[in-house]
Amino acid sequence: MESNPFDPPGSSGRPPAGGGGEVSIAVAIDEAMAALKNNWLMWILLFIAGQAIVSVSVLLCVVPVFFVAPMIAWGQYRYVAESLDGEASVDVFFSGFNDPMKALGRVWTLFLLYFAVALPGLIVGGVGTALTDSTGQEAFVIVGQLMYGAYMLALYLLILIKFLPMFWLVFGEEMPVMEALRESWRVSRGMFLPGIAAFALTIAAATIGLILCFVGVIPATLFSWALYMSLGRQAVRLAEGRPIVPV
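The structure assignment produced for this chain is given below.
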């Protein structure tokens, strides 16, 4: 995205946040269901192909997986972003291999950011497991996992909801991660209740997917990712004063 030379330092060049309307979970559900309807079969095939490529890279040598997995992840999220507007392109799924530096840089940056904020919870859970191993008391691991779950839930409700638009900005608009981080915080007005609803729907979709065994989990992944992508796109469009549904 080109920036305006007359924008103040640190500005993204976008209009001020605060357009009319609200982020709608109903619209997000409709878009996620349409994405699933139009792409479910190809998504299953491509998802399995992507996992096979990653698995082969692990068998060949551990090191390549650190390069191959992010490129596959980049393509998966780009595919989901494109699926919001109809049938996504197979080429998009493998787009990480066309621009590996962009894919590696942005996926690894996102992973490291998430790991940094999740680290306190991981430490608490790890301490509980270590205490169980050393004392034989199962209560420690249970308490540790409960504290980890409580931490991650609080993290999502208090902080991560403000950054839900970042996934659309990074994968839908291909914005650099740190710029998307700032922009997501700016445009995320009204994301709290839709974010909670999306979280509940994601758990429900994952549960149904597990009941339907392995094949059911893959379409549930497409639905869940598309749901968050739609919420993010809506927030960005509202901040720009545009309708939440592209016309």
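Interim note for the steering committee: The longest helix spans residues 25-60. The two ends are 21 Å apart (CA to CA).
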